[in-house]
# Entry
Amino acid sequence: MHIVCPYCSAVNAVPQERLGQHPKCGKCHQPLFADHPVELQGAAFQRYVGRNDLPVLVDFWAPWCGPCRMMAPAFAQAAQQMQGRCLFAKLNTEADGETGARYQIRSIPTMVLFRGGREQARQSGAMGAADIQRWLVGQGV
# Structure
């Protein structure tokens, strides 16, 4: 499987049976699975969403948004619990409005699930960690 490093954006080939063994990047030697959602924007966003073979759940948010800040700990908790099955990322629509506009983000928080660089599903509104996990399982993650 191809996994994009959240630190240096290098694409790593990882055998599927090694996904649960905490693989590290061949280039920068950092863990490929961060224990928190990865902050992305611009070209790094496109590479991370487009080149990972695992599904990527992106939280589109803004720092001024109360529900976004309220959901952040639940999103981080879900990221830890789903590690190795789904990658979690955040995109600050205030800092990267162009990407938010490209995906027609009209309200925040909005979570978008990507597979193979394509949007598979989206969910708007703040959710708890268990609800996020249930929603992902319902999407086949």
Q: What stands out?
A: The radius of gyration is 14 Å. The longest strand covers residues 118-124.
